[in-house]
Write a structure and sequence with these properties.
The radius of gyration is 25 Å and the shape is globular. With about 260 residues, the chain is mainly beta. The termini are far apart. The longest helix has 21 residues, at about 5-25. It has helices spanning about 5-25, 30-35; strands at about 50-55, 65-70, 75-80, 90-95, 100-105, 115-120, 120-125, 140, 150, 160-165, 170-175, 185-190, 195-200, 210-215, 220-225, 235-240, 245-250, 255-264. The strands form 5 sheets. The protein has a 4-stranded antiparallel β-sheet, with no helix packed on it. The chain binds calcium ion (4 copies). One calcium ion binds near residues 59 and 63.
Length: about 260
Amino acid sequence: MVNTGNSIRSTLVMKMAIACLMVSCLPAPSSADRLFEARQEFAAGIEPDSVAIGDLDGDGVADLAVANVDYYEYDLTIHKGRGDGTFVPVLSLPTDYQPYSIKILDLNDDHINDLAYLCGYSVAVRLGNGDGSFGQAMDFLVTTDSDSMTPCDVNGDGRADLAVVHRDQRRVGILLGLGDGTFEGEVTFDIDAGSGSVAVGDLDGDGHEDLVMADINGDAVSILFGRGNGFFDDVSSQATGYEPVDVDVGDLNGVLTKLGFADA
Ligand SMILES: [Ca+2]
Ligand SMILES: [Ca+2]
Ligand SMILES: [Ca+2]
Ligand SMILES: [Ca+2]
């Protein structure tokens, strides 16, 4: 059988259509696929709620600290990094209550990372020994239990302070660090609405750290502009979308620091 011109064109059109169909069926690589290899999973404790990244044993390789908040089997788990993206089996550290908002930072200026986390009506601190082990927990009372805390330096003395948000009391608590891993008593500041998240940054460029709280009950963020001495101006707020649950601060346009927040 001899192909006519029309039949040849029809065959070409058919092949092109099939080729186009095949291309369209191939999954387009997502942005995440281009940035990350396949996900790996590593066991933590039960119901991990927050995670922090930092070198806990001084080998220059990032490790993980995870706060696990299962009602019956809460703890911290320490995951030492091997440097290839995998981790050695976990070390479990018991806590007195369910731990939230774990942070890795150096609180006593010995250049060894320490742990800070919320635990019941306290901020708990465990100073690092430099080998991935930690001293006993030191507790610093706060006014209520909370699930959000951020490190800051609101009095500009170079010593790490902590800001804790108290959702039910519509307050933020500040614990000024003394530089040895301990803190002064909590001082609280009123905000407009119940908030479940706090972030820190210099929003007005005056060199003093400011605090931003996501007001899940107020459809806004509360802002406390810092005076650089551990105290703040009266709270101001900025409307957001519906029930923002989280907030962070970063330079999004290269000119001014802007707010970013996640609506519920
Ligand atoms: Ca390490
Ligand atoms: Ca330290
Ligand atoms: Ca400070
Ligand atoms: Ca400021």
